[in-house]
Every structure is written in C-alpha cells, then in structure tokens.
Request: fold
Amino acid sequence: MSNRMWGGRFGGGPDDIMEEINASIGFDQRLFAQDIRGSLAHAEMLVAQGIISAEDGASISQGLSQILAEMEAGEFTFSRALEDIHMNIEARLAELIGATAGRLHTARSRNDQVATDFRLYVRDTLDHLAAQISRLMGVLVAKAEAHADTIMPGFTHLQPAQPVSFGHHMLAYVEMLSRDHGRLMDARKRLNESPLGAAALAGTGFDIDRHATAQALGFDAPTGNSMDSVSARDFALEALSAAAICATHLSRLAEEIVVFATPNFGFFTLPDAFSTGSSIMPQKRNPDAAELIRAKSGRIIGSLTGLFVVMKGLPLAYSKDMQEDKEGVFNALDSLSLCLAAMAGMMDTLGVNPTAMRAAAGSGFSTATDLADWLVREAGLPFRDAHHATGALVAMAEEKACLLDELSLADMQSVHASITQGIYDVLSVENSVKSRTSYGGTAPDNVRAMVAQWQAWLKAREVGQ
Ligand code: ARG
Reply:
C-alpha cells in the first residue's frame, strides 16, 4: 500500500529496507510533546486567521490533546510505516476526528514542523542543562568555602609547581562551568526564533500569522527567511559545541579525581556511592564514575563531529540527510546531563584529605619561586639572577636531601651573600599561599571573596532564571 500522507502519485508501497532506512519514528518519538505543542499553536492561528473554521480547530485541538495524553501514558502504538512522529500523530488524529485532521497541515510542511519541534526540544534541554551546571557549581563552591585554607600542591606539567589553596583549585572549575553556562544561554538566545510557517521552503500563500505562532511557542520572533528556516541546524551545532566544551571540562575534573584518588596521591577518598570494587582484588576501590565521565566526552565530541559532517555539503534547503541530526543530539545531551548529575553527586560526597595534600605541597621545592621573589624584593636582584641563585639553592637542597627551609643560613649565604634570616618567612608553604594576593591569586582571603561572589551569582540564578 502506498503512503497515506504522501503516496497519491505512487502505485505501490516502499521496499521493506526503504522503510527501515527512511523511518525516524524509532528516535523522533521523543519529540511528541513539542510536535503537539507546535500543532496546537498552528491550529489556533489557522482559526484566528479564518483559514480553518473554529469548529474544525476545536476538534483538531481536542484530538491532539487526547493523543498527548495517550503518549504521556505510554499507550500510543507507534508505526514504522508512518515514518516519523509528525505522520504518526496526524494519522492518529484522522482516526480520532476523521477527515478534518487533514486540515491541520494547511500552510505548513514537515520541514518547518521538524525544525520547530527540534528547536523547542533543544531549548528545553539547554535550560535543564544550565540548571544542572549551576547545581554542580554550587557543590564546588561549597567545597571551596570549606577548603579555602587547605593547602595542596599546584601543578604544571603535573609536576609540583607552587602551593595553592584547594578551594582555589575548586574555583577554577567553577569559572569553567560558569562559561559553559554562558555558552548554553548564548546558544539558546540565537536558537529562539520560530521556523513554523516557513512551510516546505518558500513560505506560503495563505494569510498566516507567524508572529502569533512564534509567541505562542515562547519564541522571540519568527525566523526571517523561509529557506534558512527549514535548513538551518547551526542551533544544534551550537548546542553540541557548548556541550562538548562542558564535557571536556568535566573530563578534566574526572581525570583529576582518578589521579588524586590513587593511594600514591591520596588527596581524595572516593565515596562508596560513586566507586566500585574489583571481583578479584579485594583491596580495590575504583573510580568508575569518574572514568566514565572522562570517557563520555568522546561520544559528545563525536556527536558534534558527526553533525558537522552531515551538514557540511548540503545544498539549500531541506535534505533528508538532516533527519540524521537527532540521534547524536539526543545522545550527547542525555550523556552530558548524566555526567553533570554524576559529577555533582561525586564531588558532593568526595572525601578530601588535607594532611596528604599539605605533605605533598611541601615537596618538590614548591616555594622556590617565593625564594627568587624574595631575592628580587629584599636584595634588589634582577629576576633572572634571582632565578639562577635559587636554582643553585635547589640543587644544594637536592644534594643534601632536605627541603629549602631546612638549608642553614650559612648554606644560603654561600650562594648569595645578601640573603638574611628573613628569607625563612617566605619559604613555608602557608606563607607562600597567603602571599598570593594579586587579583585572581590563590591567597585564602581571595578564595573567600570569590566564594562570596559565586554564592551571589548562584543565588541570583536561583531566583531570577
Ligand atoms: N523525519 C523528518 C526529519 O527528521 C521530517 C521531515 C521530513 N521532510 C521531508 N521532506 N521528507 O527530518
């Protein structure tokens, strides 16, 4: 049998394989609520414009509401022969209200319909993800507040570099996540225009009111060009880009959890609820959640790449290639949502071991920069000379297998005569961290001030969003 929706000129139905490759109902059924929302707005507008009768409009709306209820209850039987969510809904509407159902598709096409549904879906999801990011930021800000005075080694090249506040380390991720939040909201702003009424690609001769449907669906405005309306997917690319960057940030934090929770570091203790044991090695506590967050960035970045490749050679306007936009987006945004939830749960319950952090912070001559800075400040040396003299002191300490502040004053003076007792004030890691008061620096007072700023930021979003 040929397709009821478009099969007028066809003598027979599609090959089974054609049906299989063509159908999107397996995945686009997830757009049912958005599809029905769009149809309700469209029908209402058609009535208001006198394009269909109020009576027909009412029975269409009633039928659509019943379908929504059936779908929400999981009682709807989707049919692959009906290809996609749009035609599944329309066919059911015809079962419910008869031939009047056919009036709903006046002055629209599946091309503007799917573009509208997908924008609505991505918009809802961006809002949800932004809220999840805020939640995770809240968890990290709380950790930062509790650990402003906890000292750990700061690393470059994963080599001990300079001691820092663990709270400061946490706030670095808060900064990243706030930019992720901003990127999602930027994407939302550009996405928020309604393609509905662009019809197949050229607009329509019916006297429709696209401003009304845009407003009914919470869009800022209708899109300005009918061809762009049905062929643009950059809103999805932007959402995926923002998601991929956020996933990359989560992956970096996950990597640190994996590393810092090894007994060799011992900075973190993994919570029972977010780790696993080994079936053969009874002593093991594995950071599986962190590893999976680290790994899931792969599929999120992959979805972005996948959609880029789908879109890159497409001529205007709609091509069926674009049906391939959905699964990657669903998969990527679902995965990011899961990662954000898992990361928030894990960070909230993570054990932090200040003793191990403090012990490691003192190793690796981590206050060597403070020593060089002292020579510049107190002895008037050019920084390069101070750097050189400090290097000699580090070599001496290494040879004596002691820390910098365990070198005697005489040893120090043998390298540079102008060194005095005062140098010991800057060699402790506590004083080193405390001294970094430049804006954005790691001094615990700075950290506390930043914590207060982020708390205000989070509060404003809780109320204002
Ligand atoms: N299932 C299609 C998609 O996801 C809907 C649009 C179909 N349009 C068409 N002209 N065949 O893109």
Remarks:
- Residues 24, 28, 84, 110-111, 114, 318, 320, 322-323 surround arginine (CB under 6 Å).
